[in-house]
Amino acid sequence: MSLQSIKYTRGSLEILDQLLLPGQSKYLVVRGVEDGWKVINKMQVRGAPAIAIVGCLSLAVELNPEEFASKKSLRQEIEGKLNYLVSSRPTAVNMKIAADELISLANDLYNDESVDVAEMKQRFLSATEAMLKKDIADNRAIGAHGARAILQGVAEGSGAPAGSSGSVRVLTHCNTGSLATAGYGTALGVVRQLAELGKLEHVYCTETRPYNQGARLTAYELVHEKFPATLVLDSMVAALLRAKNVAAVVVGADRVASNGDTANKIGTYQIAVVAKHHGVPFYVAAPLTSIDLAIPGGDHIIIEERPDREMTHVGEHRIAAPGINCWNPAFDVTPAALITGIITERGVFKPTELKEAISKLQS
Ligand code: MRU
User: Fold this and answer.
1) Could you tell me the pTM of the whole model?
2) Which label site among 7, 135, 166, 321 has the fewest CB atoms less than 10 Å from its CB?
3) Cα 44 to ligand 1 centroid, rounded to whole Å
């Protein structure tokens, strides 16, 4: 069974505290929106899809026992709390997109005179809960599309040749697996699908300094799944691509702009540059809820900056010289020109095709 980052039944939400992994597996109870905001902001739960799901479910558990005197007060509560949750972390767009959709649903229910306040609450809770199942289904579709694209690319001669059984070596960055989503994972879902097809020769994961999502979380998931996997430091990627016949890089996304520029974990951009140099295809795996058609390019993405301490300390131990200044952006933007394809649940698109393809899907 794969790891479960989010446990939810109506009225109860728990998240696996990712600050404690891999040493300890401990679930934290999230009682409402204030707890939801804190666990996201402190990165006890992280990963763009998981942030949105936990944020919205934290509102669901808060609303569940409450009685509302009117549809108006319920609508106000929903809108105010969702907008507050959007402020918990700025770069990933998934929470904002989920909030906009749920606020629009609340407005529709408010305007529908055949719906009373009790029904409005029930329908709102059901819509929120549906995010869990949808995310897993989307990730499975991303996995299937991504694995197919990588294997097809190899068959057509891009990247390194496949191993003797047609299996491939891939590299991933940060953590995009069951821990970062409702389950299965995005980029790690592609890796999972390759393994399910018997086509995964090896997966390399980066350490992902400074928060070490790769070493702590992805490595944990890969060991748990018994995939053939090796950890490398972020500084080893160029050497790895030169030496190890990597067929493709596949990473996740926190926000994809309409031109395909992609914000993802710091270090992604330099991996894309190195991949280009070595002729290795570079894929971004992201659900449509990570794509922000409202912004034309990556310059419009707000990049979260995190505390110096994440760089200067490992646990309680200081490793950097006292007094040194630090710059700690949590994400960077990979220009679309370095991206081979964006793998979504609806297919794989070249960055230049993305906007039109999604507009067509939505019309
Ligand atoms: O700071 P984090 O750990 O939330 O950053 C996570 C990433 O950058 C992931 O690659 C991204 O959110 C995609 S998760 C499916």
Assistant:
1) 0.96
2) 321
3) 12
